[in-house]
Amino acid sequence: DGGITQSPKYLFRKEGQNVTLSCEQNLNHDAMYWYRQDPGQGLRLIYYSQIVNDFQKGDIAEGYSVSREKKESFPLTVTSAQKNPTAFYLCASMAMGEPVEAFFGQGTRLTVV
Amino acid sequence: AQSVTQLDSQVPVFEEAPVELRCNYSSSVSVYLFWYVQYPNQGLQLLLKYLSGSTLVKGINGFEAEFNKSQTSFHLRKPSVHISDTAEYFCGGTASKLTFGTGTRLQVTL
Hints:
The complex is a heterodimer of chains A (113) and B (110).
Chain A (H helix, E strand, L loop, with lengths): L3 E4 L2 E4 L5 E7 L5 E7 L5 E9 L2 E4 L6 E3 L9 E3 L8 E8 L7 E3 L3 E5 L1
Parallel strand pairs in A: 2-11
Antiparallel strand pairs in A: 1-3, 3-8, 4-5, 4-9, 5-6, 7-8, 9-10, 9-11
Chain B lengths: L3 E3 L3 E5 L4 E3 L1 E3 L6 E7 L5 E7 L5 E3 L5 E5 L4 E6 L8 E8 L3 E3 L3 E6 L1
Parallel strand pairs in B: 2-12
Antiparallel strand pairs in B: 1-4, 3-9, 5-6, 5-10, 7-8, 8-9, 10-11, 10-12
């Protein structure tokens, strides 16, 4: 079945550590996105990529990094520079041509301990 | 800059009553518009989308939305809500990138 998969579902990190969240899609979508969700703040765009080996900063990119070496994969690294990383992270992919639709993963809940 | 604005952070409504969740978009974001629903600790599920054509769009679970270019709005409606409609709803749009509003919490009570 086609879809988009995020792993892990829950992740715990010690302060000062980097951690990488996985996002994989087999929908052959060109565009992929990372969002951060906090209560009352909606979905804030961290990074997005519309083509392999290229990505753009979103509204809250500081403290995060990404790579897009393969069309199917768009991992997000939360670095130690991110001062408040505890949040729910959502990955999405989207076809750039018709039919236009974005699919979301089930999310990763990151908690700093 | 692209922007999507959801005008209500919370909407309480009784079961079987009609509901409207409001969404406005900036002209720079309008190419395609979406409404998504999110249940607790889950990803987002597409309710409906406007790409072109008829301004009244019908989606899943009895929801519909009307694209109004003159008012730059894309409000979501349902004529009779059910307890199971309690969730967070997000309006989104894309021109060069996919952006969302801050969400509306729909709370349906008996």
